[in-house]
Amino acid sequence: MNAVKISQHLTIVFILFIVIGLFGCATYQSYSGKALPREMIGLLECPGSGALGSGNKLIVIAIDGEKLHAHHSTNDTIELLPGLHNITFAPYISGFRVVSGGELSKSIWVTAGHTYLAEIIFSENNRKPGESLTGTWMIKVTEK
User: Fold this and answer.
1) What is the mean pLDDT of the chain?
2) Residue 14 domain-assigned?
3) Confidence check: pLDDT of 14 > 50
């Protein structure tokens, strides 16, 4: 391959990484219909790290009893209509879903124009060095 072709291939790969990165961090619209203006909805953010450290993520499994498809549940930000919502969460640690402790649901009141942050609070009280995760965890949702 000559230098021009290698440069073209690298440019294509670079563009693909950018596109994947943009869509990988997309916002999920949890309601049907057209997207509403920011001042008419609330946002729930589920960052990829937090209390559990790098490579860990709190994901949303269901909203108001409706399961999310896998490609939607990994979004960092979820748009919600104002009102009371029951959100089901599951933690992923280093890319693997935590089986111990399963899923947790939390009801949150969403106000239009507000942003909420969902974080994992994890207790390793029952964990000895080298053992698998047997600690307990809970969800903390705060307004940003």
Assistant:
1) 73
2) no
3) no
